Fold each of these.
Amino acid sequence: MKKISFIGLGPVGLCMAVCFAAKGYQVTAFEKDASKANQIKSGEPYFYEPHLEEFLQKTQNKNLRIVTNNEEAVLQSDITFITVGTPAKRNGTINLRYLTEASKEIGKSLKKKKEAHLIVVKSTVTPGTTQNIVKPLVEKNTGRKCGKDFFLCFNPEFLREGNAIKDVLEPDYIVIGGYNQKSAGMLKELYNEFHKEHLPSIIQTNIPTAELMKYANNTFLATKISLINTMANICEKIPGADVTKVAEAIGKDHRINPHFLNAGLGWGGSCFRKDLQALITFSKERGYRPMLLEATCRANDLQIKFTIEKIKEKLKKIDGKRIAVLGLAFKPNTDDIRESQSIKLVEQLQKEGAKVTAYDPMAIPNTRKTLDKGINYALSAIECLKNSDCAILATEWEEFKKLKPEDFVQNMKTPILIDCRRLYNQEKLSKQLCYIAIGLGELAEPQL
Ligand code: NAD
């Protein structure tokens, strides 16, 4: 079995590392942030991801070793996955600082190794980056030639936070962009061995095409959500219309499929926004303005504004009102709040003078780091609702599904609920409280 190393232990690197180790591979992993690395070493991931802790504890100090420098990781492996972050700069372009640094370090480490080595870029990068930045940096720092002395692939990652372990173990498909046949062949062999009889389809292509595929995937998904949110906003103008029915129907069309058709507060998470921005600026710099992608972003921003308008319509003014926000994570089953629409909504409510109380089963510690002033954190959903003038269901956590109409009526000052994730039954709730939901027109007159 090949020995594997990972550089950068965020959700992608750490989830992949524990999965490879759990399958019996010898894995060395380097995370440059010492506090994150120490926490991982202690057997506790520094972020929440279902099953990650159990996988880490099963593999830590056995097949998985967290090492303290790049060289130790690279020299004790045959294949190195680069899994560092590729955030956006202020102007929207991709920030390649971490990738550049990692490539230089890998080059320096590889200088001390004689045997062939495969470098696999997993981080999402704009087309051309692997060949024009990673390759020359490794060549310069090793003094060796790509395709001859070391090998290079781009292999995008499609895992979803909240489902990351399963997605690494059972991906829908694998994309391999190889610098040459030998590079692609080495990575194919690894995945053949990793997945055995469950090997998903592998799409082999050149590196820039593979780099673009990741952006195509993310921008498609974000656009699909923005499309259904647009339908939701139209539904709200039509008495009796319901976007969930629209989604259910169109989802049955095999050209569309039912996934990513949940209308809501908008998409969030660390990737969609920065990847859309990166591709928009990348294209514009090359003389093409991708207006569809710009509209996808704009539509997402507007979902916050429309939600604020719904609150204003009911409360008349927001200033001084107590607003309960249920859910802070960008989606359930994660404590990740990066680009969370819920956080943006809280910030906007605060700007308008609301007194916000928020509750989330997992994401409060992360939220405290960015939003500390003027926000109350509750210990439970019920506590969050107490004495509020209006409640907003912002993240569809399982535990919020258990709330009953009485919980809102008995705890809130004025029972107004804005369901931004379509978690509740309109007929049941609207009998007892003022229930407003995304993508739902006013209750229609019963038809004869
Ligand atoms: P992240 O930023 O959360 O984590 C990256 C880690 O790499 C950080 O902990 C950082 O300290 C570390 N790091 C940076 N430079 C380093 C270096 N030189 N040596 C060692 N460690 C270093 O990123 P992430 O969310 O895990 O994503 C990684 C990449 O994968 C990104 O390009 C992202 O776009 C892509 N991706 C992310 C997801 C996701 O859901 N998070 C899904 C698919 C693809």
Note: The mean pLDDT is 96.
Amino acid sequence: MQKKIALEEHFMHPDFVDYWSNTAINISPELFGKVRNKLEDFGERRLNEMDSIGVEKSVLSLAGPGVQAEYFTNKAIEKAKFINDYLAEKILDKRSRYGGFAHLAMQNPKAAADELERTTRDLGFSGALVNGITNGAYLDDDRFSVLWERASDLKVPIYIHPNNPADIPAMYQGHPEMWGPVWSWTVETGSHALRIIFSGIFDRFPNAKLILGHMGETLPYQLWRFNSRWEISNKGKKKLNLIPSEYFKKNFWCTTAGVCSDEPLRCAIDALGTDRVMFSVDYPFEKSEHAGTWIDNANLSVAEKSMVCYENAKSLLRL
Ligand code: MN
């Protein structure tokens, strides 16, 4: 069994269930309860599942959207601090097994940057996981420059995790099954990442690091087309130092979270680089056994498997 680090692994706290339940609309109350129990456990149950597939370390993040859905900014800031301290305390005596991503009150970008700094410096966290938009704003918004700058200074990545878009586009009408993980989250999160590239964030912050889950939200498959078409569509309006695909190889990483399939894995590695793809489960929303068995038997060289399962995350997150 290949030794592993997993980094889209979620937890929950009772005070944050109401935020979460709004995005978990497609699951039955029974499944909701089961998943919630797994999310709130930091002990034997989770550790046994990690052991069963060779996960040495899980980097934990709050199941979204958390305080990004909070109406009051001050309350969001306060609760983000609370949940980061809670995670730090929960994993304190298990630091060899657990790491953490900061949860941020994106309603106030300066406070989010300060909290990112506090959690990485004082709590040993490895960056932040941001659940898509906050009050309709994407991370290419000028207001978030302070966060990109701070993350760059701290040399930590920002993981963009799916969340629902601000409204329901017509293309989903009559097709609720396409809403959420089947398709709409991929469209939303992939578009979020493209906005960041085309807005020139990575020219202004060349050392910024962005992680996407779900094998890069289909983007690795499209790099050639982004390159060939963006100039025509852009008509010279936006200036970028590099062509789009170069940012994917320079500023991007992706995880296998929630996608246990060889074909997109091969595509992600070939498109982004062997050092850019990292194993994850998306616990407890994906089955550990499924993800672990798949990657152990994936059609990769020994060196590739070691990098994808362990070395890349160790290096990026400085574990
Ligand atoms: Mn997830």
Note: The domain at 4-316 is CATH 3.20.20.140 (TIM Barrel).
